[in-house]
Automatic annotation (TrEMBL):
PANTHER family referenced in this protein's UniProt entry, alphabetically: FERREDOXIN
Keyword tags: Electron transport, Iron, Iron-sulfur, Metal-binding, Transport
PROSITE patterns xrefs: 4FE4S_FER_2
Pfam family, one: Fer4_13
Parts forming coiled coils: none
Domain 4Fe-4S ferredoxin-type: 19-47
Organism, scientific name: freshwater metagenome
A single GO molecular function term of this UniProt record: iron-sulfur cluster binding
Name of this protein: Unannotated protein
InterPro entries from the UniProt entry: 3Fe4S_ferredoxin, 4Fe4S_Fe-S-bd, Fe-S_cluster_ET
Length: 81
């Protein structure tokens, strides 16, 4: 007799949720470190401010965005999802 212990409720909660990138601009020092590793998502413009180019990047950018958050000297980057 085989019993199934599988529950799909947790799976359905975690799948299909897009990653969301936010920056706390109060603490961002516009160092540009994040733009070096994830230029698709972050850009420091000539006005000296950081801009988020893609607020909900695809999974293919998760590694880069995570690396950017790790490298940020002021821990300004938050990733949800
Ligand atoms: S690495 Fe951090 S402090 Fe530097 S520009 Fe990006 S968010 Fe701002």
């Amino acid at each position: 007799m085989v019993e199934s212990l599988a529950s799909s409720s947790l799976e359905s909660e975690t799948k299909g949720v897009p990653m969301k990138v936010t920056v706390d601009f109060d603490v961002c020092a516009s160092t540009g470190a994040c733009t070096q590793v994830a230029p698709e998502v972050f850009e420091v413009r000539s006005d000296g401010y950081l801009y988020i180019l893609i607020e909900e990047p695809g999974e293919e950018l998760r590694d880069k965005v995570t690396q950017a958050a790790d490298l940020c000297p002021t821990a300004a980057i938050t990733i949800e999802g």
